Amino acid sequence: MDYSLVQTVAPATDFMEDARVYEHLRVPVSGSPAEPEDKGLIAIYRDGVQSHLDGIDGVLGRALITQTWQMKLPRFPSRSCAIRLPLPPLQTVSAIEYIDADGDEITLDSGLYQVVNRGKYPSHIVPAYGQTWPSTRDVPDAVTVTFVAGYGDAAEDIPAAVRNAGLLLIADLYEHREAQSVDFEIHQNKTVDWLLSPFRQVF
Length: 203
Fold this sequence. Notes:
It is a single chain. Helix 2 (about 40-55) crosses helix 3. This protein has helices spanning about 20-25, 40-55, 160-175, 180, 190-195; strands at about 5-10, 65-75, 85, 90-100, 105, 115, 125, 145-150. It has two domains: about 5-65 and about 155-200, Hypothetical protein yqbg (Orthogonal Bundle), CATH 1.10.3230; about 70-145. With about 200 residues, it is α+β, with helices and mostly antiparallel strands.
């Protein structure tokens, strides 16, 4: 079934602490707080790597830091079929709202459905025992599922392999920051691929 995703609450922190990035890059820092001259440039590379890895547009198909999404569906699945939630790991389903046949906006009682949390794998939602999904009006985005996903609130909650891959990617970008001007080709990093391979989702 087709669906759309809208992020309603972005991560409150970056996926990598500044100090950890500076240490990995071995750049000189000064002042209080200790920062390098290239702070702004490094932040751009870090944000770019985070976008490359995190969320619906990321190559992993995962949520890294805690974030809230709304999944919009044209209708509920047939009878007792499951709603499959993207962007693992799931933390919680906040609400399921729908437009009923009369056009009223209804919040589905949480006792009428069950969340099957699969941890690092995509989770899903099914009707509670003996229940079926309600009918909806034939309108776009008749069903909205609001859920919270991510490994946790802090950067250290992200698996070490993903964090290490992120550091390597940031370092590649920083080391080859003059690549365009000198016609340098950045080759695929096999170590990054090896680190990220277990975390890639296939939809």
